[in-house]
Amino acid sequence: MWKKNLWTPLSPILRRRFPSFSLNSTLNIPSSTIFSSPCSSTAQYSRVFWSSSYDFLGSLKFSRKLCSAQSAEQVHVRCWNCKAAAQTTPFLACDSCRSVQPVDPSVDYFQIFGLEKKYELEDNNLEGKYKDWQKKLHPDLVHSKSEEEKEYAAEQSARVIDAYQTLSKPLARAIYILKLEGVDFDEEQTISDISFLAEIMEIREAVEEAVNSETLLQIQSQVQEKLKHWSQSFSNAFQSGKFEEAVISVQRMTYYVRVNDEIMKKL
Asked: Radius of gyration of the chain from Cα atoms?
């Protein structure tokens, strides 16, 4: 029974290659400085970022990196096509000529949708904002434009899709916001809590043995309550800067999400 694979890591977020930003020459600094993460933030002042690692006993450790970044207000951004100054932030598409702009990796997913950078989302119009961006960025809208702009549209549209999918799901959003703070969540790291693993195995066995949808829905209700609990636990830990506790909460959320996916396949 213990030979069951209780850990099925989430697929890593796709890494995309973005074109060099045209402001390199203006700022007169290496492109690696602009595209570095998390130091490429548009924050005006220096920030302390955290990186994580596990020691030989499996305890999570955090180290700090002091990073500074150029203020977005200090950078004079113009459209690559008509040279008009950016009127909105983030500058994904030009309001003057409607040209899709090159991807700026320093703009995070929260900024794309004009959201405050925190785990609990108070804006219920995320889907509406996503659709609004696609009306401006979708590749089909630039089919008659230059190859350069077609490439920009494909990359911007794909990034907005990824941003929407990430922020709309609590687990993916938790992992992403941790990474923004410099805390890398190791999806391959398993949980050593025997009692928790036993609980997950028991739930999965109940799912396998369920003979009707009513039973599955009852199990799903219990799983979703567990998810809600650990989601709130993550939120509290993250807001308090207790990143080790936040990581533990994300690990448990990952298991319950996987169980919920198994239930959905059987319903």
From this structure: 21
Place of tokens 């990073």: 67
Alpha-carbon distances of 8 from 57, 108, 244, 249, rounded to whole Å: 23, 27, 21, 16
CA torsion, ordered 122, 128, 134, 136, to nearest 10 deg? -100
| Packing angle, helices 194-209 and 213-239, rounded to 10 | 150
pTM over 0.70: yes
β-strand partners of 66? 48
Question: Percentage of the chain with pLDDT > 90?
Answer: 66
Please say if the pLDDT value at position 27 is more than 60: no
pLDDT at 240 over 50: yes
CATH of domain 24-180: 1.10.287.110
Same fold: 24-180 with 194-266: no
Fold type of domain 194-266: Monooxygenase (1.20.1280)
Backbone angles phi, psi at 54, to 5 degrees: -110, 135
Residue 88 identity: T
3-state SS assignment for residue 52: strand
> Domain segments of the chain: what residues?
24-180, 194-266
At position 221, the amino acid (one-letter code) is S
